[in-house]
Amino acid sequence: MLLSIEGIDGAGKNTLVHRLQEELEVEVSVLAFPRYEESIHAQLAREALYGHMGDMVDSAYAMATLFALDRYGAKEKLLQAAESSGLLILDRYVASNAAYSMARLGDDGVADWVYDLEYGRLGLPKPDLQIFLDTDVELAASRARGREAADDTRERDQYEKDSNLQSRTAAAYRRLAQADWAGQWIATAEVDMIVRALKDRLGV
C-alpha cells in the first residue's frame, strides 16, 4: 500500500509519519520527497530554491519537472511497494507538485499537466490513499520559523518563506482533496482521526 502525506511547511507531516510508524502494526517504511541526499534533480531544485540557479525558480513548470524527475528516480521502489503487503508512507508525493503549481500560477488547470506528466508519461503508481494534514496556516508558519531558529541547518527556502504562497498552497490542497484528485483523500488536522482511519483501513 502506498500512503502519501501532504501539507504545507510546518504542518506536522514528519510528526504524523513517526506516529504512524509507532502505532500501525504492519511493516512500515518511509520515503520522503524531495530526496535531497540522493537525487541530482532534487539537489538542482534545492539550489534553485536558494537562489543559486539564476531564474530557474521563476518557472513553476521547470521546478515541477525537477521534482517529478526526482520521483521518477524512485519509480522501481514505488512500484515494488505498490505490490507488496507492507505500507510505504510517502512524505510528499505527486499532489505536492500539483498544489504548489496551482498556487504559484493561480491556475487549477496545471494539476492536469502534473497528472499527465507524473502518472502518465513517467508512469508513477498512484497512492492508495492521500492525506492532507490541514493544519492552520499561521500555526504551520510559526512551527517552521521555530524550527529554523533552533537549527542552523534548517534555513527556509523561497517557497517556505513566502507566507502567501503557503496559504494559497493549503487552499489548493483542499480543492484537490475535495475532488479526490488521483484517488481517495482524507483532509483533516486531527491526527488521532487519521491514525484511526488508517487502522480501520488496514484492519489492525
From TrEMBL:
* Thymidylate kinase-like domain residues: 5-178
Catalyses: dTMP + ATP = dTDP + ADP
Q: Where is this region: Disordered?
A: 144-163
Q: Which PROSITE patterns match?
A: THYMIDYLATE_KINASE (PS01331)
List the biased-composition ranges (Basic and acidic residues).
145-163
- List, alphabetically, the Gene3D superfamilies matched: P-loop containing nucleotide triphosphate hydrolases (3.40.50.300)
Q: What is its EC number?
A: 2.7.4.9
Q: Does the keyword Nucleotide-binding apply?
A: yes
**Pfam families, sorted:** Thymidylate_kin
Q: Which UniProt keywords apply?
A: ATP-binding, Kinase, Nucleotide biosynthesis, Nucleotide-binding, Transferase
Question: Mind telling me which GO cellular component terms the entry cites?
Answer: cytosol
Cite the GO molecular-function annotations of the record: ATP binding; dTMP kinase activity
Q: What are the GO BP annotations of this UniProt entry?
A: dTDP biosynthetic process; dTTP biosynthetic process; dUDP biosynthetic process
User: Which InterPro entries does the UniProt entry name for this protein?
Assistant: P-loop_NTPase, Thymidylate_kin-like_dom, Thymidylate_kin_CS, Thymidylate_kinase
User: Does the UniProt entry include the keyword Nucleotide-binding?
Assistant: yes
Q: Which HAMAP family match?
A: Thymidylate_kinase
In the record, the note on similarity to other proteins reads: Belongs to the thymidylate kinase family.
- Function of the molecule: Phosphorylation of dTMP to form dTDP in both de novo and salvage pathways of dTTP synthesis.
Name of the protein described by the UniProt record: Thymidylate kinase
Q: What is the lineage of its organism?
A: Bacteria, Bacillati, Actinomycetota, Actinomycetes, Mycobacteriales
Q: Which gene encodes it?
A: tmk
